[in-house]
Amino acid sequence: MPDVNRGNRPLSPHISIYRPQLTSMTSILTRITGTALLAGALLTVWWFLSAASSPEYFAFADGLITSFLGDLIMALSVWALWYHALAGLRHLYWDSGRGLEIETAEKLGWIIIALSIAFTLITLLVVGG
């Protein structure tokens, strides 16, 4: 029998009716931070390789990494590392079958956001002097 209501309902959620949820945003952010960590790691490896190359090349690389842009990238890499690690712990907790209720999942999302910011600031204060 044909579906008479087919033309009266959307076939899939659309951006105009879909409200992003904290759990979906934190999941997407986990993937983004995991990918972004590669950029920080490659920048660090490049810095080490420049130190092994020549004093002139190291001066160039060190100047770039210790510039404002380099400091910003490295600080964001520290935040990405903390966020990604905490999100991984949250996923391990979820894998145990606990914390899957909507309210608990949203609280865990806010907790990892707050802790990643706090741990980043502490790390930058301790390491940065």
Provide the low-confidence segments as ranges. none
Distance between the termini: 73 Å
Portion in helices: over 70%
> Any idea what the CATH architecture is?
Up-down Bundle
**Mean pLDDT over the full residue set:** 90
Helix vs. strand class? mainly alpha
CATH first level: Mainly Alpha
Tell me the name of the CATH homologous superfamily.
Fumarate reductase/succinate dehydrogenase, transmembrane subunit
Q: Provide the domain count.
A: 1
Could you spell the SSE succession in H and E letters? Answer: HHHH
Beta percentage is under 5%
The biggest beta sheet is recorded as:
none
Shape: elongated
What is the CA-based Rg, rounded?
21 Å
Instruction: Note the total helix count.
Output: 4
Q: What's the total count of β strands? A: 0
- CATH topology term: 3 helical TM bundles of succinate and fumarate reductases
